[in-house]
Specification:
Blueprint: E1 2-3, E2 9-10, E3 12-16, H1 29-39, E4 43-47, E5 52-55, E6 58-69, E7 73-83, E8 89-92, H2 100-109, E9 117-119, H3 122-127, E10 144-147, H4 150-160, E11 164-168, E12 178-180, H5 187-194, E13 202-206, H6 210-213, E14 216-222, E15 225-233, E16 248-251, H7 256-271, E17 276-282, E18 285-290, H8 297-304, H9 309-321
Parallel strand pairs: 3-4, 3-8, 8-9
Antiparallel strand pairs: 1-2, 4-6, 5-6, 6-7, 10-13, 11-12, 11-13, 14-15, 14-17, 15-16, 17-18
Helix pairs in contact: 1-9
């Protein structure tokens, strides 16, 4: 590491991401973190999973040194083959689906540890499926079943007598999610579609009515502590609150129950190396834990004027310099 003009150590920070051309720059959490790190003199490298390769027992990638900003997007300054052990931090911001390729990505990034600080931990990402991981904290979740058997899900709904939300285990952004009313005459068809005719694991979870009126609450955690939060409220006629599906944002504060929830989660999150996390909470219930590429920093900045990316870069600097 070199020193920048202000006397701070200049870090090499790599971001693993989907193609930046597909990003909406002005609302992208990764870009906001990149921009803040650049302001401090750190070098930002960007690469996609398919650009990784092993050579001479070392992990390399075709990387791009970039300049990134929320206003102007990503400008490529140079491209080269790079030994990733020369990085100080690798921030894995690859979106789901968490498929076999994603699994291999985590296994390859693990070879960089402990010399390189990889966030979130590759081991933690393999453990913490964003849907299934909530069962580590079962006291905080709504009634939930995971199955690929439509009959089991139908029986669960009849026993409980409530509407269900059906979610695939490997997707994001509201993709593949169904609402199954308890008296739906299309139950068989919906369950067949959601489970791909009994071949695909899904989560079936009690539909919490507050989601329609107040939406869900995204709570960002950094190193196990609350960083910021906001509400995502569905557009009229939609049960999904995802911003990509037309949901809108609103300011939010944490309730005593949510503070208790965060304290309960903190030890396990830190043991699993999950340092930058997004909790999705509805009516005080934990419905999802986002660990692959949690978003929300630009939204909170717009709502409250808080620049949370500065805290994230503080954490990256401290973690890198402790190695």
């Amino acid at each position: 590491m070199k020193h920048n003009p202000k006397g701070q150590k200049t870090l090499n920070i790599g971001f693993v991401m989907d193609p930046v051309e597909k990003l909406f720059y002005a609302e992208d959490t990764s870009i906001s973190i990149m921009e803040e790190a650049q302001k401090r003199g750190h070098r930002i490298y960007y690469f996609e999973p398919h650009q990784l390769f092993f050579r001479n027992q070392n992990l390399h990638a075709h990387v791009r040194l970039v300049n990134a900003s929320l206003a102007n997007g990503v400008q490529v300054l140079s491209e080269k083959m790079f030994d990733l052990k020369k990085l100080d931090v690798v921030f894995n911001r690859k979106d789901p689906p968490f498929d076999l390729s994603y699994l291999y990505l985590t296994q390859m990034l693990e070879f960089l540890e402990p010399e390189v600080f990889v966030i979130n931990s590759p081991r933690g990402l393999r453990k913490a499926n964003e849907k299934l991981y909530i069962f580590e904290f079962a006291r905080w979740i709504p009634p939930t079943i995971v199955s690929k058997n439509p009959f089991e899900i139908e029986r669960f709904q009849k026993e409980k007598s409530f509407d269900l939300i059906l979610k695939p285990l490997d997707q994001k952004g509201g993709a593949g999610i169904y609402l199954l009313p308890q008296n739906s005459k299309y139950r068989t068809r919906i369950l067949s579609q959601a489970t791909s005719m009994g071949t695909k694991w899904i989560m079936a979870q009690k539909f919490l009515k507050e989601n329609v009126t107040k939406g869900d609450k995204r709570i960002l955690l950094l190193n196990g502590k609350p960083l910021g939060q906001f509400r995502r409220i569905p557009k009229r006629g939609e049960f999904r609150s995802n911003l990509s599906l037309g949901g809108r944002t609103a300011r939010a504060s944490l309730t005593p129950r949510e503070h208790h929830l965060i304290r309960s989660l903190r030890p396990q999150l830190l043991r699993d190396g999950l340092y930058f996390v997004g909790l999705d909470v509805i009516d005080g219930y934990l419905v999802e834990i986002n660990v692959t590429s949690p978003a929300g920093i630009p939204e909170i900045t717009e709502l409250e004027g808080k620049h949370l990316e500065s805290h994230v870069v503080d954490f990256l600097e401290a973690a890198a310099l402790s190695r």
